[in-house]
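Severity: low
Component: inverse-folding endpoint
Summary: output formatting inconsistent between runs
Steps to reproduce: submit the following structure tokens with default settings.
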């Protein structure tokens, strides 16, 4: 039995790549260098190859653009509107990734003409990419309330203020500093380091790191990461 009489179409992956620069949540985009809509801003993407899974394809796209492989990457949804790509029938599987902006390979970004844009200052995107971005941002907001995925966007060592700034950027609203500190410290998931960040004040602010091993142990015992009340 063969499938020669069945409809043919293309299968692609599109990656929403989020980053954080200690101030704003940002999105990595590049200018499309082929038709249709050549010269327009686009998500990172590519077509599925015969010898790879969808996850493999998404990691390949991410590594090609950023030089990174060991990052948070999650499948988002299927986008299959009949007219989403004017060139042909293309079904796209959306993914979103979280990376520390300081970790990526800047040379590779320049090679592909990629740039970071603040999430509230995005240019017009091709096809249905704005829809993919919107859905990714909503998923990120929901997930950040119940899982510590926000730490994927930070350097290994950070201040409480940097952490709060990140969650303000994700939720796109102000968070009361004292409430945030009390909530995050009560979880017991941060290691305070014997060094301070002296960049913003004479007194300085202690640096912290996220204790992933402790989080996994506590989760196995029923602990629930919950920032929904801040």
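Observed output (run 2 of 3):
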């Amino acid at each position: 039995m063969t499938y020669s009489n069945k409809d043919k179409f293309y299968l692609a992956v599109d990656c929403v790549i989020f980053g954080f620069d200690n101030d704003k949540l940002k999105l990595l985009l590049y200018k499309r260098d082929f038709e249709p809509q050549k010269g327009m801003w686009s998500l990172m993407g590519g077509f599925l190859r015969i010898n790879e899974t969808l996850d493999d394809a998404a990691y390949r796209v991410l590594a090609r653009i950023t030089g990174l492989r060991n990052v948070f990457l999650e499948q988002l949804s299927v986008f299959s509107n009949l007219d989403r790509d004017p060139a042909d029938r293309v079904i796209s599987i959306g993914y979103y990734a979280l990376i520390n902006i300081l970790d990526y390979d800047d040379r590779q970004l320049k090679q592909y003409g990629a740039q970071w844009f603040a999430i509230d200052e995005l240019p017009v995107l091709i096809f249905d990419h704005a829809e993919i971005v919107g859905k990714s941002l909503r998923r990120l907001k929901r997930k950040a309330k119940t899982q510590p995925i926000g730490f994927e966007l930070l350097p290994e060592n950070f201040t409480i203020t940097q952490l709060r700034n990140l969650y303000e950027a994700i939720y796109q609203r102000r968070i009361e500093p004292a409430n945030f500190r009390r909530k995050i410290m009560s979880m017991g998931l941060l290691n305070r380091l014997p060094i301070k960040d002296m960049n913003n004040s004479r007194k300085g602010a202690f640096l912290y790191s996220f204790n992933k091993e402790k989080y996994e142990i506590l989760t196995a015992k029923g602990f629930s990461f919950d920032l929904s009340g801040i």
